[in-house]
Amino acid sequence: MLKINLVSVGKTKEKWLQTALLEYEKRLRGQAVFVWQLFKTEKLLENHLENLEKFILLDSSGELLESRQQAH
Length: 72
What we know:
single chain; alpha+beta; two-stranded parallel ribbon
């Protein structure tokens, strides 16, 4: 089963985003396990990411990629 680690600084405050994330988690139940990790500061998050081999960073000011680009 696929394990998806979702990490963030602070809590998700936007109600629409919480609803969307829970919906994805529900739809993928049985295919993937979600593990949520919340960090108090950006520095703590950066330290965590340094130890990972791969990760995908979502940033509202980042480059927009199509699904096929993300798959590579």
